[in-house]
Amino acid sequence: MQTHEIRKRFLDHFVTAGHAEVPSASVILDDPNLLFVNAGMVQFVPYFLGQQKPPWDRATSVQKCIRTPDIDEVGITTRHNTFFQMAGNFSFGDYFKKGAIEFAWTLLTNPQDQGGYGFDPEKLWATVYLDDDEAITLWQEVAGLPLERIQRRGMADNYWSMGIPGPCGPSSEIYVDRGPEYGVDGGPEANEDRYIEIWNLVFMQNERGEGTGKSDFEILGPLPRQNIDTGMGVERVACLLQGVDNVYETDLMRPVIDLVAGIAPRGYGVGNHADDVRYRIIADHSRTAAIIIGDGVSPGNDGRGYVLRRLLRRVIRSAKLLGIDTPIVGDLMASVRDSMAPSYPELATDFDRINRIAVAEETAFNRTLASGSRLFDDAANATKASGASVLSGTDAFTLHDTYGFPIELTLEMAAETGLTVDEEGFRGLMAEQRQRAKADAAARKHAHADLSAYRELVDAGPTEFTGFDELTSEATILGIFVDGKRVPVVAHDAGISAERVELVLDRTPLYAESGGQIADVGAITGTGSSGAARAAVTDVQKIAKTLFVHRVTVESGEFVEGDTVVAAVDPTWRHGATQGHSGTHMVHAALRQVLGPNAVQAGSLNRPGYLRFDFNWQGALSDAQREQIEVVTNEAVQADYAVNTMYTKLEKAKAMGAMALFGEAYPEDVRLVEIGGPFSLELCGGTHVHNSAQIGPVTLLGESSVGSGVRRVEAYVGLDSFKYLAKERALLAGLASSLKVPSDEVPARVANLVERLRVAEKELDRSRLANARAAAANAAAGAELVGRVRVVAQRMAGGVSAGDLRSLVGDVKGKLGSEPGVVALVADPVEGSDAVPYVVAVNPAAQDLGFSANDLVKVLGATLHGRGGGKADLAQGSGSGAAHVDAALSALLAEIAKG
Ligand code: SER
User: In this protein, which residues make up the domain named Alanyl-transfer RNA synthetases family profile (predicted)?
Assistant: First the structure.
């Protein structure tokens, strides 16, 4: 049975039983706890928690799910996918355990010619939560399952929860026995390769609280109603019904394997397990990558972008390890589209974008592959030169961390050059890095967990934002927090230091940081029972996207919960903030006008007077492009376009061509900001000027890279832009006055000065060398006899370079004649440096006596803490410390005296 048919039968089964068919949500939902949607129930959480009233009592869906914790298992086991489709049925306070078991059982066991999947009931097993006797009885009564095929398991396996806080409940899982050829018997408890889990029925009845992991958390109490959440793994059912060995060989994934097998020098399923795993990784990961990009993610270095990057790099690496040298990602994306678009049309309609992003990542990785390979060659050569045969863990880690080299690639390359790799060292460094990442994640989670104190206010409803229309609003204090703990009152004289107090109001004109715009500053004042009170607002942040929390310093009086207060934005600040934000839209529009639609926004930040804007782009912008962006921006500002805002439906806004940030989840009703009709149209919740001319001049400061394929422009706007230009002008005027020329002649004057300086320095070098030669000639005349050798051991003043030293040593040696002779010259450091270069020459007669320049230079090096070497006739080196030069020369004489 084809996968599309499995999906269809599932939905039909439940629609016939009165369920509303709900489309899959995006894999990115607006939940800080969740990187990707990983279960069908995620989009229904507010219904389970009773926060929103569901439009139906029963629903069914097939949800796109991403799960990456087991990424290393992909291809190795028969059943792990990073992307899979979860078919589910949901009851919101309607049917409960009995209904869930009955529905699942009939679909699984009904014969195929009657719309079911036709599983042999004798092969099915169930697990239940430890004390769930009710589920055991129902499995026996409703499904006729014998007791020996029902197993009790603990919280880690049979208790589902989502979010902190979030819904939870005991679950019951259904397994299919694949037969003795897949392992020992004994049910799922004994062997999850032979007994494959296909369906999880969750009896969602409680709310979970704080705690970690799958089993260590507090259960806060019952939910308002008893619910059902089930999830059936479509790929696993397909694997079983299609009689293939593993999920990667099912009808929707196999085409990728076949495609790759047509290109790779080594085939699939020909007895090479490592190769087979690579094929399956490519099939699994390329599909996941297409889906994630389809929902708006671009490759990056953290969060979702990093997951995507890792998946794509594993694909590319696996292809390389299969011996494929040509680009392959474009073909893979097309294959995924062909298999998956019937269920997920966005893969076809958005194919160009998906393909472009995926292929760009391949190109980028192939580039780092090249520079990484150079680093590898250097490291391998250095390892061999030092006589070792093990590439260090640090090198392997740098290759992994900086160049994206998977360790397997490094291992293989090392083997080709006859080296091994210190894998233990590498894994140690990886573990350290993971530890750091974990600590980081824990810290973040903790910060989030603390938000529970605000929960009651979040539940009470969103803060009303009045700041689009007024800068001062009357409001009521709904909550006061000190260090994150709720208190009834806070007073100036309570000795609470700044920044620890937060006020939550029912309405506020103060903008909370979001959409790249930083928070407003302002004040909250009250005339409560105890007299005038004032708090300066230093920051405003949103909790759960809806509750505005003002961070304040109480400057006088006291604030009591329930007080009426006046919240006011600092008008000068707000004026600057609107210039910054509108300026950002103008730069964005100009960028796309100049660079085209591929310059997609990747992030932005604006505050009064300043903005920065990140966008996807390969390579630096040319000067001409930068200039043009600045010109287009300022011309549009100057055109004095009206700024219009309006609310509309998301779909309509997108149809109008409004620009939105990929990866951002937008609500159904969105706000549109339009500047100059078609010039700029963006989804945006920020505060803006009324007419574009109010932005004032926009000056681009520069353009830089902020990661692979992402560029950043920065700009000053308004008065800050003017101040910046005025400073530049003053700088130029200062230069002109020191150079005593008019401003426009400064460049020519500087060029002229630089050239004259170059000529003068050259002249200086020449005369320095002439002096040195004269000194050397004197030295030759004054050579002293040490034992049987005529020796010149001399310190050279005046910053003689190592190259000049070499030629001087030759001169002096020539002057010594054919008697045994040794020349050693040490140069004083040049100004600003401590380096002392030295050269030793030994003529043939002295070499016959057993002297070698290579040995003697080491004697100098010993005193000067330097290194050096060469041959018997000439050697050189460099040390440090002018103070030790005389001692070094004495040591040399003593060495020669020994004979
Ligand atoms: N939420 C449960 C799961 O993902 C059942 O849908 O397994």
Answer: 1-727
